[in-house]
Amino acid sequence: xxxxxxxxxxxxxxxxKLTWNVVLCTVIAxxxxxxxxYDIGISGGVTSMDSFLEKFFPVVYRKKHQAKEDNxxxxxxxxxxxxTSSLYLSATICCFVASKSCNKFxxxxxxxxxxxxxxxxxxxxxxxxxxxxxxxxxxxLGAGIGFGxxxxxxxxxxxxxxxxxxxxxxxxxxxxxxxxxxxGLVNYATSHLPNGWRISLGGAAVPALFLLVGSxxxxxxxxxxxxxxxxxxxxxxLQKIRGKGIDVDKEYQEIVATTEKAQQxxxxxxxLMKTSMPQVICGSIIQMFxxxxxxxxxxxxxxxxxxxxxxxxxxxxxxxxxxxxxNVGSTxxxxxxxxRWGRRAxxxxxxxxxxxCQVVVGIFLQVDLHATNTxxxxxAYIVVVLICTFVAGFAWSWGPLGWLVASEIFPLETRxxxxxxxxxxxxxxxxxxxxxxxxxxxAMKAAIFFFFSSWIVIMGLFALFWLPETKGVPIDQMVxxxxxxxxxxxxxxxxxxTADAKA
Length: 503
Prior knowledge:
Blueprint: E1 5-6, E2 12-13, H1 20-29, H2 31-46, H3 50-56, H4 58-64, H5 78-105, H6 107-126, H7 131-159, H8 165-190, H9 196-202, H10 205-214, H11 222-227, H12 231-242, H13 249-263, H14 268-275, H15 277-292, H16 295-308, H17 313-341, H18 343-368, H19 377-395, H20 398-408, H21 415-444, H22 447-465, H23 478-481, H24 497-502
Antiparallel strand pairs: 1-2
Subcellular location: Membrane
Main location: membrane
Membrane topology: Multi-pass membrane protein
């Protein structure tokens, strides 16, 4: 077949080399993930710094230094939680705007807007004089994350050859983990400096500047160009990213046909539930489950959690650096093996690994950490090892694959709208967990780990029975070769969706 190879499932595999152009564009775009990760990592460390707490949260500062204060409740403060969670409330709203921006202005322009918002937020936080200014900066950072998380995974999925799409898309998550790790190092280095928190928060400007400048050198996706009527540029860009000597005619014709179909859709959000219900459910629920693993409890509040177990401030920050390093290394497993082993295999293995770790950590805390004691050293070190093992399992599974699966399953006509639903679900649940965790820790104590364990069981069943495998399937053939053949979801495709899409 000229220009493509027939796959066993009936789809077509288009030719395409893993060119340096694709790799460079992917890495630059993935700096949107570095922005996200840096913020996740920096907020937990900053909220454990005495100089930060004394200036903005004096009540928490006093509670932290009261020897008889309940271990599980010393950081329980709604305003402190709002410092972390406000960003994700802003991101939820802004990713809706970003979904419109992706369609009207393209993925590239939307990423540039993300870097500009994030840069402004970093400056505002670094110079913050009061709580209001601090929260304002967090809202601007949230706008940057909402725009970036909407545009970057779509951008990577659309420029990547199908057989490399998984590994390339996970570079976004890889740079999230790198951002978390770098944030841990920065917090450790600045924790003893006068007002070192300003350096930590202001440092978010660095990845934002890199994305802003780097985005000037990357291409727009062929799909976005063709979708906006720039067919000639779309063809030239496709030829450029697929490499010299590659016949792109079949892939180009499929993109054109797909975009023409998509252009018939005047209200993508209106028809989303009619034509893409299975994708909406799976893409959204996998993002919800990503947060209900409890990972952000560890990533946001690792220093706080380790201090609760009796570690000194330096030791708790160092422990969070170690978990960050493991997070980075383990994500590389997904980069290299997701397109070989598939999505479901990694998800299911990690469920077992994370479940064991959560349950055992809960048992240790239940037995050894009470309201006012310090946890014995050996159990405390065991808990750190278990947390690191938990982080490793998440980092090669539900972390990167939540973004990958959600970005590759929607047809073009509902892709931005559908991916918005997934990103919004992620941001909403991140907000809920960030806003509620310290209060939950105070109320539930060690049982909070059993709470997250129960969700891990549920998400394992979901991955086993309801999540289809998408490995190696061209993104514009996903409906016919995956969803219409799945034992459960195929029942949603019995009617003429083209007619629905025109409605």
